[in-house]
Amino acid sequence: MTLIMYERVGADGRRPSPFSWRIRYALALKGIEPEFRHVRFADVETIRGLSGQHFVPIVTDGDRVIHDSWNIACYLEDRFSDRPSLFAGAGGRGLARLVNHWSDNTLGAAIRRLIAADFILCLDPGDRAYYRSSREAAFGSTLEEYCADRPRWLAEFAAVIAPLERTLAEQAYLTGTSPGYADYIVFSVFQYARLGCPDEFLDEGTALWKWRTGLVQAFDGDRRDALAMRPAQ
Ligand SMILES: N[C@@H](CCC(=O)N[C@@H](CS)C(=O)NCC(=O)O)C(=O)O
What we know:
single chain; Glutaredoxin; 2 domains; 55% helix; globular; binds glutathione
C-alpha cells in the first residue's frame, strides 16, 4: 500500500512548509517513497474534508489518516520499526518531542519575525491574500509591522540559535554521529527560512551553516522544489 502525503506548495512548485520538510526527511530515512499530492495554500476545504482540520502535512495509509507532523513521525517509526530509526529508542523519542515543541514555539517564532513579510513572495499569487489575512489576524498587525524592528529580531534569533551552534561545534548532528528526527525538525525551520526569504541568516563557515548545508545536500539540494530563494551555497 502506497502512503500518500498531502502538502501545501507555493509558487513554481516550491515547498516552504517546515512541517512537510521534517516528514520528507523522515520518509527518506525510512526509505519510503510516498505519493505526493499537492494542495494550494488557500485550499483549506480539501484539507479539512480529508482530515477534519486545516493543517498539513497529512499522510494516509490505506484507511488511516494521520495529521500533525509529530503524529506522522511516530506513526512512521512504529509502522516501519524494521527500518532505520528516527528516534533511537524511547529516550530519543522523548527528547525529540521537546525539540519539536522548542522548534515550533521558540526557533520558529524567532525566524518568523525575520521572514514573515518576505514569505508571501514564495507563495502562488492566488494564495497571497489568504496568507496575508490569516497571518495578520493571528499577529494582530500587518506583516510589515510584525517584522519591522529588525535589529531586535536579529538579536533574538542570535540568542535562540546559540545553543545549536555550540552543540554542532562539538558533534556532527543534534542526535550525535548520524542525523535523527530531532535534526530534521530543527533543520526544517531553517529550510523554511531558506525557501521563504532571500536573506541568509547563518554565517558561512559556522557549525550550524555546515550542518544545514550538509542536510540540504543530503536530500538533493538541486531539486527545484528545494531551491533557496537565492542560490543555495
Ligand atoms: N502542528 C502541526 C502544524 C502544521 C502547520 O502549521 N502546517 C502549515 C503548513 S504551511 C499549515 O498547514 N498552515 C495552514 C494555515 O495556517 O492556514 C504539525 O506539526 O503538522
